[in-house]
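Hi,

Apologies if this is the wrong queue. I'm a grad student, and the batch job for Thioredoxin domain containing 16 from Bos indicus x Bos taurus produced an output file that my downstream script rejects. I'm not sure whether the problem is my script or the file. Here is the sequence I used:
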Amino acid sequence: MMPSSFSVFRAGISFVMMCIFYTSAVDSPELSPQTFFSTLQPGKATLVYFCQAESPRTSMFLEELNEAAKPLQDYGISVAKVNCVTEETSRYCGSEKDLIKAYLFSALLFNEVKYITTLGDLQNIENALKGKRNIAFSYVRAIGTPEHRAVMEAAFVYGTTYQFVLTTEIAVLESIGPEDIEYPHLYFFYCKQVLDLTQPCRRILMKQSLTTLNIHRFIKTMEAPLLTEVAGDPTQVSTVHLQLGLPLVFIVGQQATYEVDRTTAEWVAWRLLGKAGVLLLLRDSLEVDIPHDTNVIIRRAEEDTQVEFLALSHIDLIVFHLESTMNVEEMVKYEDMAELNIEIQDDEVEETVYRDRKRQLPLELTLELTEETFHATVTASDSIVLFYAGWQAVSMAFLQSYIDVAIKLKGTSTMLLARVNCADWSHVCTEQNVTEFPVVKMYKEGQNPVSYTGMLGTEDLLKFIQLNRISCPVNIMSVQEAEEYLNGELYKDLISYSSMSVLGLFSPTMTRAKEEFTEAGSYLKGYVTTGIYSEEDVLRLSSKYTVTLPALLLARHKEGKIESIPLVNVHVHDIVQIITNASLETFPEITVENLPTYLRLQKPLLILFSDGGIDLQHEKTILRLARKKYLDSVTPCWLNLKKTPVGRGVLQAYFGTLPPLPLLVVVNLHSGGHVFAFPSDQAVTKQNLLLWLKKLEAGLESPIKVLPAQEWKPPLPAYDFLSMMDAAASEHLARKVPECIKETDMHESDKEQPDDKSAITEESIGTSKMKHSSRSSWLEEIKKPLRHDNQEL
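Support response: The file is valid. Your script probably expects a header line. Output copied below for reference.
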């Protein structure tokens, strides 16, 4: 593990990376620990990695690090390696388990910033600095967070004056005070004035969030005098606190009670340290009249604010009055900033994840897998595994849905729910062919992993898991069992997840047709229940349902109907398409989740907008027309504005204002983007609806809106970081080439080593092409815009 503290020479920088890997192709020099520490010099930057054992998951990182060694040298940063196998005495070499827990612990240390892991470390530093220096102690959740960066920037500025101490261990923070440990903290320890080593340093907590500006303001107030005596007009007095936007609190006293008043003022000053400036104002020295009963004056930093004259009998009342008004102001400011953030977020998923960042998920309901535990776990039990990246917004959003599924299945499922953070275990994800995030895969003994391809939501994933409890297709062994299957009695507990059951009927000799249906059923596993019956008495079922073999029987449990479809000259893809289309509802309620499914049909949408439940007469009319195939040219559906409020915005985009409901609309998204509204003065009857649809087909109706064809892109452009890096590298190399090199010298150099240059040129060109190809393909995946023909529904 990382030692309790690590000091670097002032004005020097050191990156320490503890890794568990080994490779023979290391270009950087290998040092002993003694040599490493002896080579650290002021102003020098060193990147050191400590290797312990071979681990293939870090080979890619090591490769890139070795490639970066040369460019880093150009910037004055040297790269070295310490082999922990041969140099076990290094204090950075620990057990593999400890190092894995450290997750590639790296710290950027300016001006002797000390990293600690225990309360004992903090107490040792505190005792060593009593009577010498004050301490700025901070807790951040992880290295590299914005709060960590703010602390390091402050350390760069104030590190010569104060000792900065940093920890990411929440146990250290818990042992200091009772404050809420959910957030990053910064304490200021007054140790310089403590001369008695048995006395603790006074600790002041910074209440504001850890930003560069807030830390600067806080430290400035720590540097300011604790208490100032003034004799002027309170409205004219100015201190550093006002300049920093903090209020001033005047304790009004008099010469006769000077000692008592000063003691009171000092107590108030300690209580309000970092929040306000405290001044002692003697009434005897004032030319300005102050109300006789006033003993406290408060002056705000904001202009045009009235000075408050108060009569408060206790120190707690002074502190409470000031803090309560400050908290209200901070809440208003925070709410204002929250509203601004809504406007500038360039990705709705990231915005949602950011807003839910404080939500505590019961991650213990899922098993976290590592490189060491993955294979043993998925081979020992049937498992569902989520592969995600902790830095990606979509992954973190879906992680919430995944945990919700775990909550619903708690105590009822034999399926183990697990997760792998690909940011930590990239080698595992690469082995499992995970190339994008998030991905869910199901592992069952003796079967290939099955990938989940449905919507990234709780209900769809839950349906996938539950329907995978049975084989697909199920082998039906008798006519009676087939009837129970079609009636929903065989798998009653699955009807809520699959409203339709599919039964394939085949004679025993139809081997090829059975194989294709079995393959189609395997493809649909987790999305619909399928069964197969091919016994000698299969003709009894085909006769009952008046269908020739081979055939499909579609049992719609909600409607209580069984539909038969003959399979003539169809293949796997055709069977999948037939079942997929048949599983769609005849007149579905459109939601955000199922809209993409119905858009794939490439038909105009006939939408009935309703402010609540659907009108029964309208539903009956449209269902009757749909079942008689009158509406095959459109996709009939309805939308409940109360359940799907986004529908109001859609209607306002179509009509400008919200029209009276219910309302029937045809939206042709796939051809022209035309929107047509059913006449509001007509009743929704069979005759009126058919006549109106015929007019639309004949082009006799004018659209109320034509949706513009455009791409769906992020509101703000994305940064092409690779291009920016390439441009910076090219510019740097251009500066390094001497301008005075003569063309003749270059030709002479060419002639001296023709073979070597040719070899180097070919090799570098090949390498350059491979890198460029890799980068280009990666960038193309990122740049692919989510295209859509229209802006609205």
